[in-house]
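Lab manual, section 2.4: Encoding a predicted structure.

Procedure: take the sequence of the chain (132 residues), apply the prediction step described in section 2.3, and record the output as structure tokens. A sample record is shown.
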Amino acid sequence: MTATRAARADPLVRSPREESPIGVRLEELTPGSQIVGLVGNGAATIVQARWHAAGALTVTFRDESGRVSEQVLFRDDEGRLEKLAAGRPWSFDADGELFRLASEARRIELAWLFDPFLAVQTSNLEPLPHQI
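Recorded output:
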């Protein structure tokens, strides 16, 4: 077995370009990103990231209580870190016209539950007495 195959077989030895099997890579720790695993189970917001070598990064972060701390991270720490998705979980910045169109389609789809003769009343047809 060659040295490169042996290095790939060992999960602790990996090149900087390989994807981390679990967690987040150190290169993804940019200011503004929210990371779980720096302080307990809570999320921390990265304020600053400074590289010292190819495998050492000092991050300054703010935890959920607002405390600012600093920590040195190595490649071995990538497995315990997890990046939260960017954006707000509930935002109201979608297209209003699409929402209006979807809600109107849903209203028409369910209208028969409230008025079984809605189709007859909204059309130009005159129903015969036995059709009502």
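Check your result against the sample. The beta strands are 34-39, 42-53, 56-62, 68-74, 82-83.
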